[in-house]
């Protein structure tokens, strides 16, 4: 696992990212329309939550595929490094 490889992500990841993209476009329109701050903050909170959830899906996929592959290849050191990096990045979301 010390060598990086391309990861295949589920259609769920792309669907979630497309939804987030739509939410961001909607928020930009709300700002342009002069919508109330409370409404904007509510929508931004929803986007933040959606980003966290897509990150959770990606982390789960990483565990199910990349980490499992590393164990199958007897690369325990690489697995531990990869897992530590993934958890560190996930923890930075909040």
Attribute tags:
94 residues; Methane Monooxygenase Hydroxylase, Chain G, domain 1
Protein model, in words:
The protein has 94 residues and is mostly helical. It has one domain (11-91): Metal-sensitive repressor, helix protomer (Methane Monooxygenase Hydroxylase, Chain G, domain 1, Up-down Bundle), CATH 1.20.58. 79% of the residues lie in helices and 0% in strands. It has helices spanning 11-32, 37-72, 76-91. α1 runs antiparallel to α2 and α2 packs antiparallel against α3 (76-91). The chain is elongated, with a radius of gyration of 17 Å.
Count up the helices: 3
Kindly provide the radius of gyration, computed on alpha-carbon positions and rounded to a whole number of angstroms: 17 Å
**Measured distance between first and last alpha carbons:** 27 Å
User: Biggest β-sheet: count, sense, barrel?
Assistant: none
- What is the CATH domain class? Mainly Alpha
The portion of residues forming beta strands comes to under 5%
Low-confidence stretches: none
Specify the helix fraction band.
over 70%
CATH superfamily: Metal-sensitive repressor, helix protomer
CATH architectural arrangement: Up-down Bundle
* Mean of all residue-level pLDDT scores: 91
* Morphology: elongated
Number of domains: 1
SSE succession? HHH
Look up the CATH topology: Methane Monooxygenase Hydroxylase, Chain G, domain 1
Please state the structural category: mainly alpha
Q: What is the β-strand count?
A: 0
